[in-house]
Amino acid sequence: MIKIGEKIILEDFPLLLAPMEDVSDPPFRAVCKESGADLMYTEFISSEGLIRNAIKSKQKLDIFDYERPIGIQIFGGDEEAMAMSAKIIDAVNPDLLDINFGCPVKKVVTKGAGAGVLKDVDLMVRLTEAVIKSTQLPVTVKTRLGWDDATKNIEEVAERLQDVGIKALSIHGRTRTQMYKGEADWTLIAKVKNNSRIQMPIFGNGDINSPQKAKLYKERYGVDGIMIGRAAIGYPWIFREIKHYLKTGTELPPPTLQERIDVCKKHLQKSVEWKGNKLGVLEMRKHYANYLKGLPNIKEFRNKLVTSFEIEEIEATLQAIFNYYKGYEIERAEIEIINYHQKCSV
User: Fold this and answer.
1) What is the pTM of this model?
2) Helix 187-194 crosses helix 154-164 at what angle (to 10 degrees)?
3) Number of domains into which the chain is organized
């Protein structure tokens, strides 16, 4: 088993759902949880927005009992704001509080937050310590290897953050300057894990998009678990497929068309329940392409889905897709890495 702090106990080699801005909301988390995600996180929340009582920031605090264990993730570059936001989060009672030190998006980095903090490890330590002193929750961190190839300081970062009291560390195998380009380098993640000083769980993140790759990286790099982000968008079944493959060495068949349509509908319904009809419909549009990936000549149907405003019309289109393609076997295509403009998954 894997422990984070005293109270969070996860099964061996847990699968974590990464915090992704404008993606990891409660509707998306719900379908991932049903498919086997062991630990999930909210979208990242601006510490300064939270203490200003910003509506969007406060809405991201919504968590539900069926999601547990769940962490709320914050970011910021000011010690006082981070400490104050930690106190606010305490009242919401998540299972843990996670700090984002890895978001590479320019609008976050230029404020001295996210991956911007990688330039100043002393500041990173102070920010982390300020949060730990202000909350009763176990504190974890998600970060990258370093700012650029010349400053891959993750080994120092891991030791110093553990020394001030974090309970787990998730590492994305790229630098900030890489953004999401190139192949994630897990060799440094493995060095952190194999460091005799490191006693906390180390979770690897980056490029895991198939059961086979999950098994290979588990065995090759020895991490305590893996965090999955973009590969789960429109394909929450990635969690159950990985778990089955690790347990049996055999592949699960891909989800049927009926299952794809059913889960897509469920995602839509939860989106509308949480955000209201108008926003729930609009926010769902970014997910359809991935739910329907692999279907030939789907463009006309997809265009209808992303231009409809009525739930009944969208559900009717989804049913029409099922009727048109039923019997067609969708092979599981390797999930593409999608760069969302102005969005962040560390």
Assistant:
1) 0.91
2) 40
3) 2
The H or E element containing residue 318 is: helix 311-325
Please, are residues 205 and 176 in contact by the beta-carbon 8 Å criterion?
Answer: no
CATH of the domain at 107: 3.20.20.70
Which residue in 179, 205, 47, 46 sits closest to 105, CA to CA?
179
Q: Which of 32, 103, 264, 344 is catalytic?
A: 103
Both structure tokens of 277: 């009809």
Residue 335 and residue 39: Cα distance in Å, rounded? 21
Which residues are CB-neighbours of 248 under 8 A, at least 6 positions away?
A: none
**Domain shared by 132 and 280, yes or no:** no
Do residues 166 and 305 both lie within one domain? Answer: no
We report the CATH number of the domain holding residue 301 as 1.10.1200
In which element (H, E) is residue 302 found?
helix 299-305
Query: Which tens digit of pLDDT belongs to each residue from 63-85?
Result: 999 999 999 999 999 999 999 99
Q: Is the peptide bond before 14 cis (omega within 30 degrees of 0)?
A: no
Question: For the segment 256-294, what is each residue's pLDDT rounded down to a tens digit?
Answer: 999 999 999 999 999 999 999 999 999 999 999 999 988
Q: Return the C-alpha torsion angle 131, 96, 4, 248, nearest 10.
A: -140
Strands 202-205 and 39-41: unpaired
CA distances from 233 to 108, 158, 168, 257 (A): 23, 29, 24, 17
- Residue 72 φ/ψ, nearest 5 degrees: -100, 130
- For the question of residue 103 being annotated catalytic, the response is yes
H-assigned helices in 78-120: 79-92, 106-109
Separation of alpha carbons 81 and 117, rounded Å: 15
CA atoms within 13 A on the CB side of 317: 21
Cα–Cα distance measured from residue 275 to residue 56, given in angstroms and rounded to the nearest whole number: 11
3-state secondary structure of 139: strand
- Do 204 and 288 lie in one domain? The reply is no
Dihedral angle of Cα 134, 345, 117, 146, to the nearest 10 degrees: 130
Q: Is residue 343 part of a domain?
A: no
**Which residue range forms the structural domain that includes residue 276?**
257-325
